[in-house]
Amino acid sequence: MENITSSSDDYFASNYTGTEQTVLATILTFIIVFSLYGNGGMIIVLYKNDRMWNSTNILIGNLAVAAFLTTLLIMPFSLTSMVLKYWPFAEGPICKFNAFLASQLLLYTIFIHTMISIDKYFAVVKPFSRAMTVRRTWTSSFILWTIAIFMSLGPLIHIGEYRYNRTALVCGVGFPKNKIDSIYMLFLFALGFIIPNIVNAHVYFKVFRAVRIHTKRISKTSVTSTCDVMKLQQRLVLTAFCSLACFLLCWTPFAVYVAMAVTSKSIDSIPHGLGVSAYWSGYMYNAINPLIICTMSTRFGDGIYELTISILRAPFDFYDFCKRGGGWEQGKEGSNTSSTTNLHQMKRLEPSPTIETELSTLPRTPIGSDPALYSSSSSVSVTAESSLLTIDCKQKSKENGAKNIVSSASIVLTTNKSQELLHTDSNPA
């Protein structure tokens, strides 16, 4: 936010002492590490648990994505400038792209916080409303991304200017040189900070008032299930409010910095170190917010804990795998053997189909001494259900002009526990 009044080398050089740069670089390194791990872990936990995909968690996930992108694409440039003691990218495409992303992600973050407060309003004040469904939440998130992008396009179409901020050691909206630049900066400040926070204050006032009224009613009825639901709602509201409070606390120095840049006639009137403090306190929010969410949300907290344990155990598991020897081939062979065994077990347990067949010849039961006294026609019905096989055989025999003889045989084959039972009865009619 400043005009170039000296040579190019002096302009892009850092105006902080060696001790200040060492301390600031160390702090920013810790912020980057904790922010990447915290926000990346929240994204992984939400991605792996479909049951967590309600409106509130989707918005929290979008918040984590914005913070993760800020950490990955914005903070390393500030760290590079601090370590090298100068800005190595001049004011070319990298500088403008970096400033565009920083502006867009900051606007999107505050917009998402406003959406979270609105979501809590409908959840507590109007619980039967269908205003914040999962589909509408995704649609709203996409619209907010679009609005943030269009609001950040001003300097790219010559409304305002993206420049390197020597006091902040990062590219951003340049110090206003005319009324149009000042109006654009005021526009960003009003729509990106003042108005959303007015909406947040109004909405949370109604939410806390509704929670207080519901609490009084529940204390009179003393219904356990209702009390549990209300406590859960209170916890969710408190989590969202603490996240917003952290955002306001961390980004207030940036708001003061912007206000001073708009009202000041010269960049020299801005206190030394305010630029870095303004931006880096906002960076710190990206590292603190996951800690707040995971502390107050059991699902996110448990998910991050399990992810941490799995990461810490990974080197030991890999060492044990290598120590056992055999490598991948042994694991593959064992896997194939196990799969074959499971397949045989499944085949044994698989229900057999019903079989009905006609047999033309059956073993004959001698009725008299002369086998020619009878002829045989046979009908066999075979029914197999799971491990029980039942065969009913009926023989119809005819003697030359004599009475009919019916021979019935019932065979029950039971394969359960490898036992077989054969029972045959033959009675003359």
TrEMBL record:
It is found in: Cell membrane. GO terms for molecular function: G protein-coupled receptor activity. One of its GO terms (cellular component) is plasma membrane. It is a multi-pass membrane protein. The chain crosses the membrane at residues 23-47, 59-79, 99-118, 138-159, 183-205, 236-260. Keywords: Cell membrane, G-protein coupled receptor, Membrane, Receptor, Transducer, Transmembrane, Transmembrane helix. Residues 329-363 are annotated as: Disordered. Residues 333-344, 354-363 have a biased composition (Polar residues). InterPro entries: GPCR_Rhodpsn (IPR000276), GPCR_Rhodpsn_7TM (IPR017452). This is G-protein coupled receptors family 1 profile domain-containing protein.
